[in-house]
Prior knowledge:
The chain is mainly β. Helices cover 4% and strands 39% of the residues.
Amino acid sequence: MFATTVLVFTIYSVVFADKVSAIPCVNQMKVGLDVYNKNVNIPDKAFTSSSQATHGYRASRGRLNTRNEGSDKKGGWMAIHRDRSPWIKVDLRKPYTLSGIITQGRQCGNNWVTEYQLQYSTNGINYHYIRRPNNALVTFSGNSDRNSKVCHNFPLTRARYIRILPRKWYGNGASLRFELISADWPTQKAAKCTEYNIGLDVDNLNTYITDSAFTSSSQATYGYRAARGRLNTRYEGTSDKKGGWMASSSDDNPWIEVDLQGDYSLTGITTQGRQCGNNWVTKFQVQYRKDGDNNYFDSSGTNTAQTFDGNSDRNTEVTNSFPKLTARYIRILPTDWYGSGASLRFDLIACDW
């Protein structure tokens, strides 16, 4: 507790000075953009930018400590040389309380950002600059070489989106790697993690998990395809957009799967029945596999399959929990259902400590 209090006072003394000065890059709690300490819930698709010199310098190469791995994987993000108003942005997938930033130059060449400003947002639409108490914009001093880390603290800021705007740089294009510093210090002996919905819900959509990420064993018709299995999907009045995923009536071993595009820490699932008809799954099992794995495992974490109670009507949400697991792919296997075919809509519950 005393350590947290000291950190807060340090933040304000650094940023509120006439000139923003760097601080030592030690004892900082990182969000997890660093390739050596990666937060699996922030995938490469969470990074975007105003431009890229080539695909090898794309925004996702802007993670701290990224290294050159060849022409397709360069050692940092770099904007195209004619981009005079460059920016790089990250969607942290959920709000964090942030207190600082760490930057590096390009690992594989003499390009680095020497001055930059920061914008933040909670909704990805309305952005605000990091400012001093007198409302003046804060300009941060950047790097002077390829690999040294330069750290800055700023006033505690609640944000999901962070945008870095280079103002001056060395070399033929703005280039950097970065990490963010979190002030969301875990409480001692925390009882449980912070849970949130992944964003398969059509009313709270995670745009990085596209319709093509959904697959299934079968579909009654194209209108009941796997992508219609998102939580709160509604019948849209046309034959190709029904109110849920539904397997073929002849499918005795149905399943629906989603590729989350990266590993997540998961603790549960929420399901509904078919919105536009009397079909719902009453019993089901859950299997998972990690990114890079070929084998599926049961959500119980044991050799005995865990069977969950499902739904008893069209629209009521039913949530089931399972032991915390890490997975990129989740497969739902209905074992009993009401109606002519297994039908459901779902979202997943993620967990961050």
